[in-house]
From TrEMBL:
Keywords: Pyrimidine biosynthesis, Transferase. L-aspartate binds at K83, R173, R227. GO terms for molecular function: amino acid binding; aspartate carbamoyltransferase activity. Its EC number is 2.1.3.2. This is Aspartate carbamoyltransferase.
Length: 314
């Protein structure tokens, strides 16, 4: 792997499969009474979050601690950042503290790239979500979840599988990273949503697109629902929430049209009743809670490999 993980495009197929197979070994820790390895003892991981987060921040913290790393959680609220301190000065502070890895989430697209290539820090930088750009570790944990349910003995078993990503693709960094990574792994991806919520130039992504959810659902092996990010919208992207749910929400009627093996995914947080109904979110087809568990294992694998771990963490 490269020194940083900034984009799903940074990962070759071999890189992605190495992360997934390493995560598979590390996931077994979740079932042990003592969930720790000494692999990163003496290393320091800083979680630098300029945006609110629950799952991602806690997941990275749990991942680092299970590898015995020292963890510093640095939130913008309540820090000098709220007083106007620049990203550069914050980075220099982290460098002075001896950070080995910086996990950054930022509202500005490109902020992790700026940090990684500025020369301000010598540590590895992991993009935990930047604006509407990317969220590569979410794509990795989604691919890992797909592999556990749909693949064979190796991640290459995902070749030829079909995944639909449904909803607010325009504002979704998860959709962008998944489109890149799943194609790298040989998965056929279809983006589904109203025309107003599909990005300009989406045809250059190399994926299929559709405005008709009902036509796509019976053909896919997994359906990934996305939250409508109202906080990033300044205009009317659809008539009403009720109309959006009618056209693009996953409910029990639509779930009944899925193939027997098809799984339902969501990166969270969910808005129950909007893009997904409660009966679908809580159904046997749903792997949404499992995605959270898998996220810890995948982020352990990423930190382990970036900070110089061998291919066999055991």
């Amino acid at each position: 792997m490269k020194r940083h993980l900034l984009s799903a495009a940074d990962l070759t197929r071999d890189d992605a499969e190495l992360v997934l197979t390493t995560a598979a070994e590390l996931r077994s820790l979740a079932d042990r009474p003592i969930k720790k390895l000494p692999a990163l003892r003496g290393r320091t991981v800083v979680n630098l979050f300029f945006e609110d987060s629950t799952r991602t921040r806690i997941s990275f913290e749990a991942a680092a601690k299970r590898l015995s790393a020292d963890v510093i959680n640095f939130a913008a609220k309540g820090s000098s950042l709220s007083k106007g301190e620049s990203l550069k000065d914050t980075a220099l502070t982290l460098e002075a503290m001896g950070a080995d890895a910086v996990v950054i989430r930022h509202s500005a697209s490109g902020a992790p790239h700026r940090l990684a290539h500025s020369g301000w820090v010598r540590s590895s930088v992991v993009n935990a979500g930047d604006g509407t750009h990317e969220h590569p570790t979410q794509a990795l944990l989604d691919a890992f979840t797909l592999w556990r349910h749909l693949g064979e003995s190796k991640p290459s078993g995902l070749e030829g599988r079909r995944v639909a990503i449904v909803g607010d693709v325009l504002h979704s960094r998860v959709a962008r990273s998944n489109a890149l990574l799943l194609q790298t792994l040989g998965v056929d991806v279809t983006l589904v949503g109203p025309p107003t919520l599909l990005p300009v130039g989406v045809e250059s992504w190399g994926v299929d697109t559709s405005y008709d959810l009902d036509a796509v659902l019976p053909k896919v092996d997994a359906v990934m629902m996305l939250r409508v990010q109202r906080e990033r919208m300044q205009g009317g992207f659809f008539p009403t929430p009720r109309e959006y749910s009618r056209r693009y929400g996953l409910d029990g009627r639509r779930m009944a049209t899925l193939q027997d093996h098809t799984i339902v995914m969501h990166p969270g947080p969910m808005v129950r009743g909007m893009e997904i109904t409660a009966d679908v979110a809580d159904s046997d087809r749903s792997v949404i809670v499992e995605q959270v568990t898998n996220g810890v294992a995948v982020r352990m694998a990423v930190l382990y490999l970036l900070l110089g771990g061998s291919e066999n963490p055991e």
